[in-house]
User: What shape does this take?
Amino acid sequence: MTANPLPVPAPSPNFDTQEFWDATAQGKFLLKRCDSCGVIIWYPRFLCPDCHITETSWFEASGKGTIYTFTIVRRGQGAYRDAAPFVVAYVELEEGPRILTNIVECDPESVAIGQAVEVVFQDAGDGTALYRFRPVTG
Amino acid sequence: MGDDQGARMSIRGKAFIAGIYEHPRREIPDRTLTQIHAEVALGAVADAGLTLSDVDGYFCDSTVPGMGGISMVDYLGLQCSYLDNTETGGSSYLGHVGHAATAIAAGKCSVALVTLAGKPRSSRGGPPRGGGGGGGGVDAPPETSFEGLWGLAGAPYNYALAARRHMYEFGTTSEQLAEIKVAASIHAQYNPHALLQNVVTVDEVLASPMVSDPLHRLDCCVITDGGGAVVVVSPEVARGLERQTVKILGHGEAQKHAMNGRVDLTYSGAVWSGPRAFEEAGVSQADIDYASIYDSFTITVLEQIEDLGFCEKGQGGRFVLDGALVAPHGKLPFNTDGGGLCNNHPANRGGMTKVLEAVRQVRGEAHPAVQVPNCNIVLAHGTGGALSTRMGSATLILGREDA
Assistant: This one.
């Protein structure tokens, strides 16, 4: 198991992302899809970065993915000062985007590229939760 | 002479304003700064009968969220061959139009976008409401809450993500990365100003503490105070100088960002900036006698060697073996001042020293032990920002006066 629990720094929702962070408190991972070209948009924003129209729609993602790459941080800084060793990774979501996150609820030394992971939400206060991922077991 | 013609080049008649847009509102408490930039950008390209997909040059001041314009380029989904963040206060945008015309006249871009956005009225008495933090009037970069909360504090952790993926896809090893540091240290022993003048071995690199898997301490550049400066002159001025000058043959730049979640950490922005510079210079990789290659970390060097076309993608690990980077006789002598890995990385920004050592090589003024014989054409390349999130890349090709 991870030696120390990770801090849960609060995100700063804005007009692009308020719905996303509201949903995390409900245990939901939302993604945006472009209403015109259909591409999945990450991170959530005002316009489709592919075809540049502003009509986009939220939907609930599966919360599943695989590890694209990772590192084990051996010396944490700031809020993470006492948290090392811990894992920072890019997870490739089932829906496609590769997103930065932490891998939790496992021994950092056991983490591998290609590993199947699923989202967990950790209360950050202020009506938001932080999304992290844990290995899928069984 | 062609050079003289270039010196007299004018923007007159070379560029045209095609679209404009003024945001209709005067108090905008319900938008982020990036949203306002996006709104005016969309309005101006629509007025021109173009789309953001046509834009290949972006100009903004220092009030945009993020480093330079790179977060804005990412947010808007642009792919630009020219980026200018000149900050001259309220006159910035007039300057930007002139700079855009100059860039267009020089063939550096063909559709330039200049944007301004601000919220001083709705943010009176505090940071912008709903602006995404970053109190004090400028929003935090739009990616902050999606990239800044995971303890990825510091460049080594960011670059380690790329190193791990490169190893996974291509079988690159820590020993191969260490060869890059070893070559830099061999050069640094001849530089009396280098912070680290000791020659190290592969084993010593691997035995240094693991900072962020798979990067060891000796995979990382030095942290130094300092600085550097460059003077660029016209052909007429150059002719009147006794000092040997160095001809600027080509330049290319690019931004690589998160590309709407299509993150691929096995390459850098050099895949775009490099070919632009080679094309302008009219030379190929085989013509390069010496290369200054940005070396914030060993993995930075490895990916850029591949991206600049000195070997095939994925073959960088094999390329750097057998002293390939060691001056004066390696296949690709690099960073003969000891580079950022051993010599100097002033302000945590290694691009300036990359230019300086490239100039020394062309002038024949590198240390005799590492001076490349008959050094005629050189390359200097930089990657700024972060290899695993978003970066600005720039490539210069320089040569002797008669090159």
